[in-house]
Amino acid sequence: MRYSISQLATMAGISARTLRHYDAIGLLAPAEIGANGYRWYGREQLLRLQRILLLREVGVPLGQIGQVIDGQVNEITALRAQRAQILAEQHRLGTVIETIEATITDLTGAHTMEPADFFRGLHHDRSRLKHRLEAAHGPVVEDAFTAVDTATDGWEMTDYEQAAAENRALLHRMAELMQHQVPPDDQDAQELVEKHHGAIARYWEPHAAAYRALADLYLNDEEQRAWIADIDPALPGWLATAMKTYATHHLRDATTP
């Protein structure tokens, strides 16, 4: 039995345009093309399309699917890699669902949640930030995250809230200096940066290169820049310059004796 492009598109839940695209890139050619230009597909094409859509569903890039199906890339290896990613995301989403359900229960008064439980499963942004930093700066990032985790082990929610409030208060003081046209290399500005470095050093000791990298993060990373710019849009640039000035004059690199 053969199927027209519209029949196959309907069965597969995709558009005829998608099937034409698959043909154009050499991923799924029709069994035959009639004299009138109509595309016709048979059972072999149905089975191939099924595999294409399965691999697309689990996140295999379109450019790799043809290689997998044609045996140039091991299909089992590709599927196992995607399976691991999906299971990890499934676990995270399961935790998020539990958090939502517990929050509903809390809001209806049936049960009072512990404060930390409001954030279970919602640390995905931290994980993404860590991966971005590791890609840019290498294994030193893992050491920094480990040091912070060790230093904050056993913290209560109030500890996190206090640290965040202190940091935000310091940033507001920096913004006030900036708004009064105090340059980032001014002594008053550098004294506040010294407090900033000292606050970080409670958890992790950033040497000169690391502190400069942190300044670049505040300036160039969209998420990190946003929460500083929320205080003043010009603050990320001012702070980054102040931090780099402090690193140049007061800090040593890790390799410096």
Describe this structure in words.
The protein has 257 residues and is an all-alpha fold. It has three domains: 3-70, Orthogonal Bundle (Multidrug-efflux Transporter Regulator, Chain: A, Domain 2); 74-122; 124-250, Orthogonal Bundle (Globin-like). Helices cover 68% and strands 3% of the residues. The chain has twelve helices and three strands, in the order E-H-H-E-E-H-H-H-H-H-H-H-H-H-H. Strands 1-3-2 form a three-stranded antiparallel sheet. Strand 2 and strand 3 (39-41) form a beta hairpin. Helix 9 crosses helix 12 (235-250), helix 10 (208-220) crosses helix 11 and helix 10 packs antiparallel against helix 12 (235-250). The termini are far apart. The relative contact order is 0.06.
Q: What do we call the CATH topology of the largest domain? A: Globin-like
Strand content: under 5%
Radius of gyration in whole Å, from Cα? 27 Å
CATH architecture of the largest domain: Orthogonal Bundle
Q: N-to-C SSE series? A: EHHEEHHHHHHHHHH
| CATH homology-level superfamily of the largest domain | Antibiotic binding domain of TipA-like multidrug resistance regulators
CATH class assignment of the largest domain: Mainly Alpha
Helix content: 55-70%
- The quaternary organization reads as single chain
Structural class: mainly alpha
**Strand count:** 3
Question: Which stretches are poorly predicted, pLDDT < 50 over at least 5 residues?
Answer: 110-124
Let me know the average pLDDT.
Answer: 79
Any idea what the shape is? elongated
